[in-house]
Inverse folding.
């Protein structure tokens, strides 16, 4: 035995060190700060199905993505290997779709905007970047009939794709068994001109497996100046699958404080195909949510978020609500926050501690729930530890 | 089994002197780097805070606090790790060639031992694994030691303490032999083991067929490299549009590695028993 | 002679028609001979004729292209190494080892290791146990090398050029070993190109030339029947 002692010592050292280190980790789940809800008003059940997604920064280099739901904080790094491999948390809807239609979902981009689901169908429409180029050259269309498990899928060249910087699908929907794709195509223009964003609707005939119609809904001038640029966003109605709100906003950052102004709002009806201009006063703030009849727009200051409920038909503000938020020390402008609409409710959470959280009932415009998300571990911004919440999903 | 154990002990002890030297150099330089950076920071705090030019808070707002990252990102810390890994990788070849090309051709003795020749192979393999694991395990201990060192030198107010787990995780970003958690560790060592086995097989090709074998060995290693890399490349190209789900990719990867390992072991056994030449 | 062949049927090394080429160079082109247990067989031939290759082939230290080698009628297995040992022309232990470490190594791996005999040989060669192999003189290294082979209780010993580059005194000591009980009853296969040193010890000679066995003869018989020494026969063969 004597002559083996060195090897034995080495083996024992290796086994002991590695075991202690790796086993120790299983017992210390609280390496990173844990969050919990602190209710100010209402019932915590209101946020039971809400998943908050954010990043925890520590030190200079590292940040960890986390999900917080039902008073449990999970960090991506502590998830199983296969979940971590992606490097990000999949959207819940994608997770669900992949679980249910694993084979259909194979090879599809993990972006919720590209999917449409109703009782019978799951439709997919995308314009992925080419493997070797940064051009969107092809549409990928796929349709799953959930009842028969029949899958139709085909690709087709994007008409005149050379004309555009990019083609970005915003919404997939179906009309009379056709798959429709609403896209924003940003057109090449000469240097002197402003860019032009075209809103297109493409219609794909599933039986013929081809593109049968292309309509240009509207053109929106879009410019990038020294201190200004414009963005176009879509807001889906959370009540019906018929209408979609298209909002053009102008970001101005000439001063230290970034200002956002609503420039144009249009309403697209997916069933009839009609496009209506909405008379919307920029003073009302930025539309963040929409339910077919009303637009909910937001304005913020350092200490409050002002909500208005705007009736599209009557063209008037019907109700207003001011939410008090904790001033965010590191933000010069107003509060940063995330808004999510779901089933007649608005979920609002500010992006920095103490994460002011609100659930608003849109019919009554009353605060159903108000609270904060508090971290139990010591998060010390002086040494580069910060937590942000940048997304909300509803289970 | 008894002979295998004896051979492992023999091979390990044979490398021990070089190994200890290597560890002392690698971790010595690292520790020197840690001391250099901590004392540099300590001097800064002394110069400014102790002379009363700034309060502790003002100082930390201006210069930040001292943490592991202040030295783990420095070349004095990272380079030695790579030197160590390179040395270990080199030894994967040398563990064989030293038997042929040393002053006394020990290979005659090894090959005529009354034991299965695969025992020699497996003993060398186990030794390589022990060396690598030992290197990794010592790295963990050293990380703990280095963080202790900073705690001794730099006052609480000026530093940020990472947990051991976070520190190892930070280091694992560039240390190929260490990972933050057990499953990654398993995956990493599956790769390392495969790599060593492939190197061994290539060496045995060369030792069996000399020049021709060298070519075969290089081609073999290259094919294996492609087999390992291709699934990753495919995954990378289709990063946002994975044709295979991550868990499938993992299984495919492990499957490919298993096939590589089994094939290589069979080839090695054949070469060891029938083809190898003194 | 015939009787001896008959008697030792199972107890010998049989080399049957082995061929071996290094690239295009055909070194062995069908070599066959036997080496009996209890006899000293000498492979004779000029340098480069393939003597060492044959030794290596018998020990499975180099692959052969065709042919067969049997030891006591069986093919070589790992267990055979308890029955046959090889003393190549340079020592097969690590230079960093002391002689006692080498002994320990042999004890660890060979059941046929005979410690008593090893000590006996150590004394005979006047070597010290705690000497490091690297520090030994060339002659002493050769002695340790021989010792490690001879101290195994094996039936067959293969020696490759045991006298090459060794001083006169060491050479005498080694020659003495051949006549001692250390060799008795064993089968010895040696190669040499200096036949003079061992001529009187040899039972059987295998003459190699051009990759084949040119002549295989019993030294004693040739001496008695034809009045020729081994060197005489060699002269006939190599300088016709």
């Amino acid at each position: 035995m004597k002559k083996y002692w060195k090897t034995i010592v080495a083996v024992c050292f290796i086994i002991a060190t590695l075991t202690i280190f790796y086993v120790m980790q299983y017992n210390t789940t609280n390496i990173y700060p844990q969050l919990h809800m602190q209710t100010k008003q209402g019932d915590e059940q209101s946020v039971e199905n809400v998943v908050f997604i954010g990043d925890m920064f520590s030190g200079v280099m590292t940040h960890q993505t986390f999900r917080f739901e039902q008073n449990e904080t999970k960090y991506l790094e502590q998830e199983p290997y296969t979940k971590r491999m992606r490097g990000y948390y999949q959207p819940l809807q994608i997770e669900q779709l992949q679980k249910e239609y694993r084979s259909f979902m194979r090879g599809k981009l993990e972006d919720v905007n590209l999917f449409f689901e109703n009782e019978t169908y799951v439709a997919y429409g995308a314009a992925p970047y080419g493997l070797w180029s940064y051009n969107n050259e092809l549409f990928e269309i796929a349709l799953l009939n959930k009842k028969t498990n029949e899958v139709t899928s085909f690709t087709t060249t994007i008409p005149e794709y050379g004309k555009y910087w990019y083609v970005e699908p915003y919404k997939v929907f179906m009309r009379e068994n056709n798959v429709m794709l609403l896209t924003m195509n940003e057109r090449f223009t000469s240097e002197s001109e402003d860019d032009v964003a075209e809103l297109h609707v493409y219609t794909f005939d599933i039986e013929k497996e081809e593109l049968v119609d292309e309509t240009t809904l509207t053109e929106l001038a879009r410019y990038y100046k020294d201190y200004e640029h414009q963005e176009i966003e879509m807001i889906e109605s959370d009540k019906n699958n018929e209408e979609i709100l298209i909002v053009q906003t102008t970001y101005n950052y000439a001063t230290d404080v970034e200002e956002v102004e609503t420039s144009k709002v249009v309403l697209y009806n997916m069933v009839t195909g009609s496009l209506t201009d909405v008379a919307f006063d920029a003073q009302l703030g930025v539309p963040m949510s929409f339910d077919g009849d009303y637009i909910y727009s937001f304005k913020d200051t350092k200490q409050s978020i002002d909500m208005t409920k705007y009736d599209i038909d009557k063209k008037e503000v019907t109700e207003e609500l001011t939410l008090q938020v904790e001033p965010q020390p590191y933000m010069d402008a107003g509060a940063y926050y995330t808004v999510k609409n779901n089933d007649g409710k608005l979920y609002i959470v500010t992006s920095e501690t103490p994460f002011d959280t609100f659930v608003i009932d849109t019919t009554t415009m009353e605060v159903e729930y108000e609270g904060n998300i508090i971290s139990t571990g010591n998060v010390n911004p002086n040494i580069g530890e910060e937590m942000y919440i940048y997304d909300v999903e509803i289970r | 089994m008894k002979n295998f154990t004896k051979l492992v002990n023999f091979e390990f002890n044979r490398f021990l002197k070089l190994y200890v030297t290597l560890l002392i150099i690698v971790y010595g330089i690292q520790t020197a780097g840690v001391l250099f950076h901590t004392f540099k920071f300590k001097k800064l705090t002394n110069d400014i805070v102790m002379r009363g030019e700034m309060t502790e808070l003002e100082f930390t707002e201006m210069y930040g606090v001292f943490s592991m990252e202040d030295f783990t990102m420095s070349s004095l810390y990272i380079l030695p790790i790579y030197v160590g890994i390179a040395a270990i990788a080199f030894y994967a070849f040398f563990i064989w060639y030293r038997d042929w090309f040393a002053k006394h051709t020990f290979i005659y003795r090894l090959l005529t031992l009354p034991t299965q020749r695969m025992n020699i192979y497996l003993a060398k393999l186990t030794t390589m694994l022990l060396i690598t694991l030992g290197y990794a395990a010592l790295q963990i201990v050293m990380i703990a030691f280095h963080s202790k060192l900073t705690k001794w030198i730099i006052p609480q107010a000026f530093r940020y303490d990472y947990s051991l787990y976070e520190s190892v995780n930070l280091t694992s970003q560039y240390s190929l032999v260490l990972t933050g958690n057990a499953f990654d560790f398993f995956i990493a060592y599956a790769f390392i083991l495969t790599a060593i086995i492939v190197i061994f097989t290539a060496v045995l090709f060369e030792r069996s067929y000399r020049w021709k074998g060298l070519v075969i060995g290089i081609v073999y290693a290259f094919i294996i490299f492609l087999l390992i890399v291709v699934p990753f490349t495919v995954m990378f190209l289709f990063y946002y549009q994975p044709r295979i789900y991550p868990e499938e990719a993992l299984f495919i990867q492990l499957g490919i590695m298993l096939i590589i390992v089994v094939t290589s072991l069979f080839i090695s056994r054949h070469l060891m028993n029938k083809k190898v030449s003194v | 002679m015939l009787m001896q062949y008959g008697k030792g049927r199972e107890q010998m090394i049989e080399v049957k028609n082995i061929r071996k080429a290094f690239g295009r160079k055909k070194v062995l082109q069908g070599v066959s001979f036997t080496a009996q247990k209890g006899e000293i067989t000498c492979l004779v031939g000029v340098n480069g004729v393939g003597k060492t290759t044959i030794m290596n082939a018998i020990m499975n230290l180099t692959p052969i292209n065709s042919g067969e080698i049997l030891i006591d009628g069986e093919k070589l297995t790992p267990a055979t190494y308890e029955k046959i040992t090889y003393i190549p022309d340079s020592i097969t232990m690590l230079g960093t080892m002391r002689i006692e470490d080498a002994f320990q190594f042999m004890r660890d791996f060979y059941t046929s290791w005979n410690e008593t005999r090893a000590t006996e040989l150590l004394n005979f060669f006047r070597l010290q146990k705690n000497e490091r192999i690297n520090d030994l003189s060339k002659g002493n290294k050769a002695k340790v090398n021989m010792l490690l082979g001879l101290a195994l209780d094996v039936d067959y010993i293969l020696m490759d050029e045991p006298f090459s580059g060794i001083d006169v005194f060491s050479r005498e000591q080694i020659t003495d070993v051949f006549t001692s009980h250390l060799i008795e009853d064993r089968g010895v296969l040696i190669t040499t190109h200096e036949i003079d040193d061992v001529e009187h010890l040899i039972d059987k000679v295998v003459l190699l030339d051009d990759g084949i066995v040119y002549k295989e003869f019993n030294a004693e018989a040739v001496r008695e029947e034809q009045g020729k020494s081994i060197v005489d026969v060699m002269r006939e063969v190599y300088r016709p």
In short: The CA atoms of residues 140 and 197 of chain C lie 19 Å apart. The first strand of chain C starts at residue 12 and ends at 22.
